[in-house]
């Protein structure tokens, strides 16, 4: 069985990115651990028709964001890495400053110190210079900043198409095999 990937969802707008990631991972048999921030729960309720229990059911393991003793808080627990989708500026700030006051930030810090992939789907815009500096600092520590940007060469027809394209591209960064996205094959190979 492959090592699990850790999926965290924070309170930034874009809960559907985390939910679709979990759906895709479940459909391909890739184990996922989930951490929901307290505000993520509220954002899921506001933005989607998916219940918190349905979101949790998509993960193999669900950790409390308050449980700093969870297995994913230790580098000795092996994972494929971590995707934070969506990632709030508050969480980005905690990661950039190594201020691990919850499990999401602690697990992200573990990924960085263990040189595992950490992908941050930063969702709040526009950015001011302080936000950009936090992104720079997180990148220098080893994170990948991945704001979900639509890929129009895939000719999306629905919001789901746009979301899946971003999710698929994010999972590519973990070398997770899937056929969820349309890949660019040049202008004649669409």
Care to describe what's here?
With 190 residues, the chain is α/β, with parallel strands linked by helices. Helix content is 40%, strand content 15%. Helix 1 links the parallel strand 1 and strand 2. Helix 1 crosses helix 7. The longest helix is centred in the first third of the chain and has 14 residues.
Give the biggest sheet.
Answer: 6 strands, parallel
- The arrangement of helices and strands along the chain is EHEHHEEHHEHEH
* Residues in helix, %: 40-55%
Beta-strand segment tally: 6
Q: Indicate the structural class.
A: alpha/beta
Please report the number of helical segments: 7
Radius of gyration: 16 Å
Instruction: Give the averaged pLDDT, no decimals.
Output: 96
Give structural attributes.
six-stranded parallel β-sheet; 40% helix; 190 residues; alpha/beta; globular
Q: Short summary of the structure?
A:
The protein has 190 residues and is α/β, with parallel strands linked by helices. It has seven helices and six strands. Helix 1 packs across helix 7 (159-172), helix 4 (89-96) packs across helix 5 and helix 4 (89-96) packs across helix 6.
């Amino acid at each position: 069985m492959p090592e699990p990937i850790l999926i965290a969802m924070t309170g930034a707008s874009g809960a559907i990115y985390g939910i679709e990631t979990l759906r895709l991972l479940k459909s391909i048999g890739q184990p996922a651990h989930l951490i929901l921030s307290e505000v993520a729960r509220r954002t899921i309720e506001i933005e989607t028709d998916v219940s918190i229990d349905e979101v949790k059911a998509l993960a193999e393991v669900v950790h409390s964001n308050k449980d700093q003793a969870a297995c994913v808080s230790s580098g000795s627990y092996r994972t494929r890495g971590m995707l934070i989708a969506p990632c709030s500026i508050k969480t980005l700030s905690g990661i950039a400053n190594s201020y691990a006051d919850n499990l999401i930030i602690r697990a992200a810090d573990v990924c960085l110190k263990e040189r595992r992939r950490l992908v941050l789907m930063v969702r709040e815009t526009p950015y001011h210079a302080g936000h950009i500096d936090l992104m720079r600092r997180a990148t220098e520590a080893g994170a990948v900043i991945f704001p979900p940007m639509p890929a129009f060469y895939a000719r999306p027809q629905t919001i789901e198409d746009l979301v899946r394209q971003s999710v698929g591209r994010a999972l590519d960064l973990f070398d997770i095999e899937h056929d969820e996205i349309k890949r660019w094959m040049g202008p004649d190979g669409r």
